[in-house]
Amino acid sequence: MATYLITGASRGIGLELTKQLLELPTSEVSKVFAVARNAETDAIKQLSQKYPDRLYPVSASVDNTASVQHAVEAVRAKLNGQSLDVLVNNAGISGETKGLIKDMELDQLTQILDVNVVGVQRVTAAFFPLLEQGTQKKIINVSSGLGSFAYAPHVVSMPSDAYNISKTALNMLTVRWAHQYAEAGFTIVSISPGWIKTDMGTAHADLSIEQGVAAVKKLILETGKEQNGKFLNIKVPKTDEMMFDYDGKEIPW
User: Fold this and answer.
1) Contact criterion met (CB below 8 Å) for 168 and 197
2) Looking at residue 185, what is its pLDDT?
3) CATH number reported for the structural domain that contains residue 190 in this entry
4) In a domain, 162, yes or no
């Protein structure tokens, strides 16, 4: 009966993950806290009506400390003495870098780092006391293969410099947390969800939202302490139409 908290839960991967987790029996997933800048969207309202005793929408912005602290208090109240077992840091933004990296706008880099890296630190630190009381003690940071140094030569032409840099920084943040809290029983990993057909991923992506998130969910459920501090890929059978491989193995840093 694990309790989950998912950021960026109003759309895309976060919304679909919330939906798929709630489809599991209560014996596996008892509560899901859907955190989003706007947690009152029609999609979340529909899920709330379907799962009124298991889904708890929470409005918060990961780039705002006061907002996150208010979210902690709201979640603590709804837990009513229960612990928080799994945190999925999914909220993130992208952005096209115009021209070469010398032309990258500093405001864009600052904004993306604030959401994709500082936001994860802000959320993780704020909810950590609740996670310490949990039985699973899992923190899942949704990264990207674009943050891999090893893959960098293969995606040099992609206009996503700021986004790539942010995901590389997120991976180091993951490793620092993982190493410092391994002895406390935590499992803290970065995962690449693959190229999924979302607003961010575009309609040209490799995987449907249902297929990609099903693989993400499976990875989250199966990840244990032996994976602590690792960068993990989802597992989806390769087809000729796919640009990338999803082999379920560790991704090189």
Assistant:
1) no
2) 97
3) 3.40.50.720
4) yes
